[in-house]
Amino acid sequence: MNKLITTTLFLVLITLNSCTVKYSFTGASIPPEAKTVSIYNFPNLAPLVNPLLSSELTETLKDRFMAETNLIIMTKQQGDLHFEGQITGYNTSPVAIQAGSDQAQKNRLTITVKVKFKNTFEPKNDYESSFTRYADYESSQSLEAVQGTLVATIVEELVDDIFNRAVINW
Fold it and tell me: Is residue 12 part of a domain?
């Protein structure tokens, strides 16, 4: 019985090792040849500039790849997977008007990022796309008071979208 279990386990491991696509527990599908990823700084070219947004977005994307893949982050040269882009939108606007008044009950912070992704081994997965996410806040609060929390939430959602589009292939 032990011999049967050992043989079965051995065959399963050989089968998994011979797959042509590298998988992770997060569902990421990365070519087995890919060993590196480069993520260039995302400059903030939005008309309204949050001075911390560029580094927060860039570092959060790098953190995602370090946490959920085995890829090495390249800083001096282009990696097997490569990201570059820019922040193209950062604005706030009213979204809910109070009844009997012309004042907003809620405001919305919206961030848009343009991303160019290149996959050296699977060019069919390359993309150039814009991603937009937003979060609402009460108009009784100033943007400065809620900006840190809102930006962190929106950046996480944007990184989810960028990561998923690149390596989950949605």
Answer: no
List beta partners, residue 132.
112
Q: What is the CATH number of the domain that holds 101?
A: 3.30.160.150
Task: Say how many domains are in the chain.
Answer: 1
> What pLDDT digit, counting tens, does each position of 77-131 carry?
899 999 999 999 999 999 877 666 667 789 999 999 999 999 999 999 999 999 9
Residue 4 belongs to a domain = no
Residue 147 sits in which domain range? 34-168
Alpha carbons 81 and 106: distance in angstroms, whole number = 40
Task: Give the chain's radius of gyration (CA, Å).
Answer: 21
Single-letter code of the amino acid located at 114 = K
Query: pLDDT, tens digit, for every residue of 27-68?
Result: 567 899 999 999 999 999 999 999 999 999 999 999 999 999
If you search the block for the tokens 């343009």, which residue do you land on? 114
Please tell me whether the overall predicted TM-score, pTM, comes out greater than 0.85 for this model.
no
69: in domain: yes
